[in-house]
Amino acid sequence: MTGPNRLASALLVAFLALAPAAVSAPTAQAQSTACGKVEVVTFRGSGENSVDDGDRSNGLSGPTLQKIIDKARTLPSATGYTLADVKVYGVPYPAIPAEEYNEKDQDLFDSIEYGRLFGSGYLQKRHKECESTGTRFILAGYSQGVIAAREVAQDVPESWIAGVFGLGDPAQKANARGVTGGGANGTGIYRKLIEKDDGTASSDSFYDLLVPTFLFCHDNDPVCDITLRFWWPPADFGPHSNYGGTDAELGELAGQLRGMAEAAETTPAPPDGSGTGPADLMFAIDTTGSMSPYLTAAVASAKSTADALHAVSSKARVGLVEYRDHGDSYVARTVVPLTEDFAAFESGLRGLGAAGGGDTPEAVYTGLVTALGADWNRSATRALIVLGDARAHDPEPVTGLTAAAVTDIAKGVAPMPALPPTVGTAVARTAAEPDAPAQEREEETQTAVPEAKIAATPGEKIPAVPIYALSANDELSAQMVPITTATGGSTFPIGSPDEVTKSVVRAVEDASTAPTARLKAAGTVLAGNKTTLSGLASSYVGDATFAFDFDTDGTIDLTGSDATVAHTYTATGGVKARLVVTDSRGRSSEALVDIDVRALESLHYGEPAPSMGPSTPQSPTPGPSSTPAPAPNPPATGGLALTGIAGLGAMIGLGSVLLGCGVLLFVTTRRRRRHSTTD
Q1: Has keyword Membrane (predicted)?
Q2: 549: which DSSP letter?
Q3: How confident is the model over 87-125, as pLDDT tens digits?
Q4: Burial label, 2 (beta-carbon count in 10 A; 0-12, 13-18, 19+)
């Protein structure tokens, strides 16, 4: 019999052998699917088995977390709250024994990646099922499970997470936010393993999350409180194996877990984070003679513009371009580059003078392209608002710009063109009163100075920018509708200057619904192992597509509706991955993530432990009544074989039956591989 056929037969035999027990055992299907305000999602500890929890959970929390959960179900708070009615789900993943952390293979990284993949997928599934309830999740982990819980917390929107509860965290950073216990000043073995030469570790980004965190470490726990020079495995796992070992500590830990859940039940969820990212807004304003009353209205709208932008983002920037026509002293120029200084923006508005023109059409497209050449933040919500009262040349003299050309530039399809020398230069001004005569305002502009030239260089493609038009002219409105629609913006006809402020606010509010891309990857991955890139924390309205560039070489490697994808990095060193999220209106946002691709030999493994005689130290295990825990089926070599979380609901539905086969194959494969290296 060939190898693959033998493997298939072995899996079939395992399936038939495990099926009766698995069907009678508690599974995910046996649990209530009702949605509460909070749910506890657990990641069992290294080497732990499953436990019987009746129909209250799927039994995969492991004995350490299970006893804390059991205590929290019967230990009331001052208000009488307990965990008795809170749904608990244990994430199925390998959870290799702690004494194997130091073995120079990919098993620990594979195990964590499976916990991350299945955990993030379960949260996405439950969030969709319980969206109307607003269910939030406490991610609870022990030992290796804490790393998986931390990774999942970073994969999904922060608003989904009610807290992270961890015991004996191998990724612990000494005295970091939320770290407590007698060993809080120690370093975790996993963090030491992946630590860089400068003392930092990619896992430290977890502590930047603004979610409730409780990470407890015993003094001298060899997993979360190691010494700088260590033997492994240690002679005594005791401090790591007895969390909740006394009644007092068990009550304290149960109280902490219960407190997280009660807070999530009784306090509103934080904002979903869609308004916390950066936002860039450029204005392109016609400053020909007939625009004087609209310029006055634009100045009056400055505060409303600032308020609307700050409601979208605390990291907002605003900029200003003015345009006239070919043959005037200038065609278009940047008055205020993108800046967080809203006072400078208002001053720039006050300095605008309406003059020139005298006929129509105007150089609207040059004004737009000048503004599109701003120094856009690719991760920001972006928008360009044009305010004018005269139609555009189409095609435009000198530049040859057309509506189609402007549209392609704004969508990031066509590169920036080379503009004539009369474009891109600002002038020194002194502010005039908003109601000053146009001629007086124009005379205040005296000395031309080179300033705030277009940031984009000819031939460069900008990130996609939605265009919004505030049009006081029917012909201009008709010209702008195809452009604004194609770029994901909108056209707002304005019948009088009084409508400027309202229209600006409407444009900003609409722009705030554009996607915000967020990309997460394991900070440290092994060369040759698959790792998951996750855009689950991205925000968008309606449907969206996810485009992944694995190495930021400018080429999109994979596009689809799945927010996660697996990729194998073969070369060691630092690499950046890029995600572009595009909604159904064509609006997009980009995110980058740094990945440290390492070779096994570059990791900081501990020295082999001296011989301890015939006895071998063991990682904590449950009592004899527990049963082997199901786990996903990792491949024998090469790491993850999965490519995303599509269809995860069906996989979770099969639960104990199919995944039970995996643990047998995983353990057998690992043992065979280890024995083959020692024979």
Answers
A1: yes
A2: E
A3: 999 999 999 987 777 677 788 999 999 999 999 999 999
A4: exposed
Dihedral sign from CA coordinates of 194, 195, 196, 201: positive
Q: Write down how long the chain is.
A: 679
The structure tokens listed for 226 are 């190691």
The token duo for 502 is 């309202």
State how far the alpha carbon of 188 is from the alpha carbons of 143, 159, 213, 478, in Å.
10, 27, 17, 63
> Rounded to the nearest 10 degrees, what angle do helices 500-511 and 302-312 cross at?
10
∠ CA 14-644-123, rounded to 5°: 90
Region of 29 (left: φ > 0; alpha: ψ -120 to 50; beta: rest) is alpha
Closest CA to 373 of 428, 420, 419, 430: 419
Q: Quick check: helix, strand or coil at residue 643?
A: coil
Nearest to 147 by CA among 224, 90, 64, 63: 224
The percent of the chain in helix, strand and coil, each rounded to the nearest 5, is 35, 20, 45
163: helix, strand or coil = strand
- CB-CB neighbours of 343 under 10 Å: 10
Look up residue 135 and give its two tokens. Answer: 């269910």
- Count Cα atoms within 13 angstroms, Cβ side, for 178: 23
Interior CA angle at 638 toward 633 and 640, to 5°? 45
- Cβ partners under 8 Å of residue 199, min gap 6: none
Residue carrying structure tokens 């003299």: 397
Q: In the prediction, which pLDDT does 664 show?
A: 39
**Whole-model pTM over 0.70:** yes
Q: What is the DSSP string of 113-141?
A: HHHHHHHHHHHHHHHHHTTTTT-EEEEEE
Which phi and psi (to 5°) does residue 191 adopt? Answer: -65, -40
Among candidate residues 230, 245, 454, the one with its CA nearest the CA of residue 335: 454
Q: Pull the structure tokens for residue 235.
A: 């002679």
Closest CA to 568 of 644, 640, 666: 640
**Helices then strands, each counted (H, E), the chain:** 17, 22
Q: How far apart are CA 39 and CA 629, in angstroms?
A: 21
Give dist(CA 259, CA 249) in Å, integer: 15
Q: Cβ atoms within 10 A of the Cβ of 606, count? A: 19
Residue whose C-alpha is closest to residue 326's, from 352, 365, 295, 291: 365
Asked if 4 contacts 655 with a C-beta cutoff of 8 angstroms, the reply is: no
* pLDDT under 50: residue ranges of the chain: 1-30, 228, 273-275, 424-452, 612-628, 631-679
Q: Tell me, what's the pLDDT at 607?
A: 66
Question: Residue 427: helix, strand or coil by DSSP?
Answer: strand
Which of 147, 149, 45 lies closest to 97, judged by CA? 45
Q: Determine whether 63 is exposed, middle or buried from the number of CB atoms within 10 Å of its CB (0-12, 13-18, 19+).
A: buried
Provide the Cα torsion 326, 321, 584, 533; round to 10°.
130
Backbone angles phi, psi at 154, to 5 degrees: -85, -20
351 neighbors 430 (Cβ within 8 angstroms): yes
Distance, CA of 385 to CA of 466 (rounded, Å): 9
- The one-letter amino acid at 586: G
Structure tokens at 492: 């707002």
Residue 239: strand pairing partners: none
